[in-house]
Amino acid sequence: MADKRELLILGGGLVGMTLALAAARKGISSHVVDRADPADLLAEGFDGRASAISTASWNLFKNIGLADQLEPHGCRIESIAVTDNMRPGRIDFVPEEHEGTLGRMFANRQLRLALFEAAKDEKLISWHAKANVVERHRGEHGVSVTLEDGAVLEASLLVGAEGRGSPTRDGAGISIAKWDYSHRAIIQGLIHEKPHDGVAWEIFYEAGPFALLPLLDDDQGRHRSALVWTVSEADGEGVMKLGPRAFKAEVEKRLHGIFGDIELNGGRSSYPLGFHHTAKIVDNRLALVGDAAHGIHPIAGQGLNLGLRDVGALVQVIAEGMRIGLDPGDAQVLARYEKWRGLDSFMVALATDGLTRLFGIPGKAPSAIRRLGMGAVQRMPTLKRWFMDEARGMSGDLPELLKG
């Protein structure tokens, strides 16, 4: 007899596995299918990226029981400094003492470790790693997938969580608006002389944002940050080919001495930047979450947080629907998820796209206008508060799992 479960989640990355764990905490069972080998994903140096986890997303991790395991590995973001070319007119976002932090920085590898460890011991999660899906089926009463080894998995609802190139989304014929920014993000770890004091820097240059994200000191007590440097696609290959000394010199030029002496830490990686947003996030017995539904520029560090809001909302509508006897794949349940998340994710995507374009306009006059605007925000507590609430993920209609 087939092991039919409530959810069939295709994609076991940060968003997909968080969804499976959040669902399990509500008594909802799932199959999680991922083609990757977990050992590869957890290898040192596989992915040098780090993610900013907002206050709301941290609440989600607390509510699904991951906080104790993650807490020692997260660096608190005490404030955010935003500047145009390091010229006068900077904004400093500093939360009130009772609000805690603006979020936490985690290495993606550390998030995976915590998620995979929890999933391994969860009876409501059937984890199928190193598995390729060869056929997907959505019918009137349920869904199923056939794996390459011939195994058939069944559930009530199919969830596409495979990321930007989601074959589940594309196979469902869901249309998508997308464009390429012709930019590339260069990722590099830094060790630096001066402490970062928990400050996340967003320095806007004409070629793109230059972000410095605070990390915990290493086991030798050295101060560390993660650099996310956006360059044009035309320059990306050249920047990646720079030797360590030349690359360090280019970074130092843009740092203006805020960290003192620096050295490079670990390998360098890069990935292309683009925008996409689906016309809808549900179909017959199908829901999309995370980058399968919306991919945004990393300018505000909201990509993963947007996906975690999807997780909270989807779990809540399914759990509430099941309490009144509705199937997880019921059209009423999915319509509620679509209404809740469709507009919010679209507005965040538009805002990040607008910021990317606004700060990319070259010339002294646009820079002066931007700095004038930032100076006005710095002097307006109400507007500044709104921006901070957005950064913390605490605005709008929050799912219960994302509340404190």
Automatic annotation (TrEMBL):
Task: Pinpoint the FAD-binding domain residues.
Answer: 6-338
Which InterPro entries does the UniProt entry name for this protein?
FAD-bd, FAD/NAD-bd_sf, Ubi_Hdrlase_CS, UbiH/COQ6, UbiH/COQ6_monooxygenase
Give the pathway.
Cofactor biosynthesis; ubiquinone biosynthesis
Q: Which residues form a coiled coil?
A: none
Q: Which UniProt keywords apply?
A: FAD, Flavoprotein, Monooxygenase, Oxidoreductase
- GO molecular-function term, one example from the UniProt record: monooxygenase activity
Which SUPFAM superfamilies does the record cross-reference, listed alphabetically?
Answer: FAD/NAD(P)-binding domain (SSF51905)
Cofactors, names only:
FAD
Pfam families linked to this entry: FAD_binding_3
Family listed: Belongs to the UbiH/COQ6 family.
> What is the name listed in the Swiss-Prot or TrEMBL entry for this protein?
FAD-dependent monooxygenase
Please name the source species: Aurantiacibacter sediminis
Give the organism's phylogenetic lineage. Bacteria, Pseudomonadati, Pseudomonadota, Alphaproteobacteria, Sphingomonadales
